[in-house]
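Handoff note, outgoing to incoming analyst
You'll be picking up this chain. Sequence as last confirmed:
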Amino acid sequence: MSELDLDRIDNMQYDVLREIGNIGAGNATTALSQMINSKISMNVPKVELLEFKELSEFVGGAEKIVVGILFTLGGDIDGMMMFMMDKIASTNLVNILLGNLQQQEISDDTEFSEMGLSALNEIGNIISGAYLSSLSSLTNLSITTSIPYMAIDMAGAILSVPAIEFGKIGDKALLIETEFGDMDKYVNGFFILIPTLKSYLSILKSLGL
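Most recent structure output, in case you need it:
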C-alpha cells in the first residue's frame, strides 16, 4: 500500500483500527484501576473514524466543559493524542484518587484544587501512556510523546487545537469512546488519536495491511 485515503478505507483496515482502539482502551483502563487501587470494569469501546468537525458532538457538544490532556507524538508515529472527560467525571476520579470520598454535589462550576489539578494531569498521563504503550507493542513501532498539556474548557475550544494543527494534512481522527466505572457508577472518557496520513499508513503496514 503506497498511499491511504481515509475516505475510502476498506473494512479490514477499519476493523484493525477498531481493534487498536479496543486494546488501547483496555490497557488504559487497567492502568487507571491500578492507579486508584480500585477494580474498574470497561464496556466495549465505540470506535469511530470521524472528521474533526464531528468530534465535539460525540463528546457532548461544542459548549460542554471538558478536561483535555493533549500530547504530540513523535518517533515512528507523528501526530497528536488527546484524552478527554467531562468535568463531573474528572472530579469524581480525582476525589477517588485523593481519598476524598465524602458526598458532595459536583457541577461544571466545581473548582479543582492545586492538588486536584496535579492528580488530574497524572491520571491523563498514565492512562494515555498505557494506551500508547499498547499501540507501540502491537505495531512494534517506536512512539515518543511530549510533556502533557492540560486544558479545562469547552470541547469546541479544546478540539480546535488539533484541527488547526493537522487540518492542513488531513481531517480525520480516530475517536475511542470508553465507558468505565465501578458497580453502577460509570463515566465516559474519550481517546482521540490523530496520526498523520503517513503514520496511519505505518500503523497498517506494521500489521501486514
